[in-house]
Amino acid sequence: MDDLSFDVAPGEFFGFLGPNGAGKTTTINAIVGLATFQAGEIRVFGHDVVRDYRRARLCVGLSPQEFNFDRYLSIEEILIYQAGYYGMPPSAARPRARELLAQFSLLDKRRNTYLELSGGMKRRLSLARALVHRPRLLILDEPTAGMDVELRLELWDFLRDLNAGGMTIFMTSHYLEEVERLCNRIGIINHGRLVALEDKQTLRASHGNASLQDVFLALVGRPTRG
Question: Which residues, in sequence order, are bridge partners of residue 198?
Answer without folding.
Answer: 186
